[in-house]
Amino acid sequence: MSHLTEIIDNHNNLDGVFSIVKHYGVSAEFVTDALVQRFEQIQKNDEESEGSTEEEKVYCEEILNTLNQYYARL
User: Fold this and answer.
1) Which superkingdom (predicted)?
2) Of 66, 69, 67, which is closest to residue 31 (Cα–Cα)?
3) In the 3-class helix/strand/coil scheme, how is the chain assigned residue by residue?
4) Which CA distances in Å does 27 have to 2, 11, 23, 50, 71?
5) Which pTM does this prediction carry?
């Protein structure tokens, strides 16, 4: 599977997930908090195992910062 196909499939899958979330009225606060918790867990596990690359660490930090800023606005 090509990288482009993976990107398109992932976007379609996310659209499907968000349709379900919206249908059941799950709040943005809940989704954001769940994502923050999961990314913090990933970050912690990566620090303990030291198996992640610098790029993965930067990505995780960036998305956590963005999600935390968004959560503060809700």
Assistant:
1) Bacteria
2) 67
3) CCHHHHHHHHHHHHHHHHHHHHHCCCCHHHHHHHHHHHHHHHHHHHHHHCCCCHHHHHHHHHHHHHHHHHHHHC
4) 34, 21, 11, 34, 11
5) 0.77
- Contact 42/11 with Cβ under 8 angstroms? no
Question: Residue 37, class by beta-carbon neighbours within 10 Å (0-12 exposed, 13-18 middle, 19+ buried)?
Answer: exposed
| Rounded average pLDDT over 10-21 | 96
pLDDT for res 43:
86
